[in-house]
């Protein structure tokens, strides 16, 4: 299909006004500072209230302090999902699908995404600020529907039907929704991009610090270098666990088409609202009698239901699957980088262990050599001890015999040392 076109029905008397996107006045949208009046602080702070930032599909944001009951009532999620977003599960990763919302807990990004807005918890944290910037920069560009640079406005009677302040597309215009990702997937894509970028930069920092430390350890095995490698391995293990959690959560979604189908919030919203809106409009605008009206209602119900079901197959999850596969491959690459660093650490440890084993073998050889020398000296000491006894001997009265006898004993001990040393080398107990 070509360019996306949504026909907009002219507002009739008594109908709610058509919502229009915010006017771009040329001011930069990537600033963290909020406009005056967007922070809604209650006069009396409610107990247990936390800071949330709300983004609509046009990229406008506001800060609010909401308690658990307000969030549950606004997003329609169970209480246990707010516990998942609490500080206890701060380093866990989960993407949960609910009836009207998606609960996202990826690293430092904890948000509740609906078909119309996103509620971000603790938006002023340093790690979350890049995500806030990306939402402000990308949401207006992805959400504004323009044709030839201008917003689409038509005066015909087909197109959108108002329902409780919202404008819903008729089945003929549903096909245009498939040309780009729904709002919830736009936010999910931004969250995955920010998280993957953060993890990839962390791995890059780890690689930059790891290789010099490991090379230094390979050249000089010292207590300081060993302590640095131990700290490096601890950081690597924690980072690998964080990457593995996000990767496993995406893999879990990719393995279950039903879970991915539950994440299509816009699709479910249109499926629930469109038949009732179409039928209500036909009843209000039809001047024919009741009996023909009933026949038209039945035919309209069957036609609209068939069109919606044709355009929105429940298990048609190709868009989300391609989105998740892209970031799954990126996380797989990040994980492989960490594993390569760990392999380099293991190789360095093996090399250091070989060095230590070689030094240990050299010490054993030196100890064996000294033991052989000690044995040869002990033989000479034994002979000297024999002659030191107070037993009469004719050799004591022989003149000029002392130094030749000592020389002969010394030469004999040296020969004994060389014989034993040669035997040890012949048996390969000592190195050459």
UniProtKB/TrEMBL annotation:
Q: Keywords in UniProt for this one? A: Coiled coil, Ion transport, Magnesium, Membrane, Transmembrane, Transmembrane helix, Transport
**Topology term for the membrane:** Multi-pass membrane protein
Source organism superkingdom: Eukaryota
Entry keyword Nuclease: no
From the UniProt record, which GO molecular function terms apply?
Answer: magnesium ion transmembrane transporter activity
CDD domains on file:
Mrs2_Mfm1p-like
Where does it live in the cell?
A: Membrane
* Pfam families xref list: CorA, MRS2-like
* Predominant location: membrane
A GO CC term assigned to this protein in UniProt: membrane
* Any one of the GO BP annotations: magnesium ion transport
Annotated transmembrane regions? 368-389, 401-424
Please give the coiled-coil regions recorded for this protein.
Answer: 229-263
**Chain positions covered by the region annotation Disordered:** 1-33
**Family named by the database record:** Belongs to the CorA metal ion transporter (MIT) (TC 1.A.35.5) family.
Q: What does this protein do?
A: Magnesium transporter that may mediate the influx of magnesium.
Protein name stated in the entry: Magnesium transporter
**What organism does the record attribute this protein to?**
Solanum lycopersicum (Tomato)
Task: State which gene encodes it.
Answer: LOC101247864
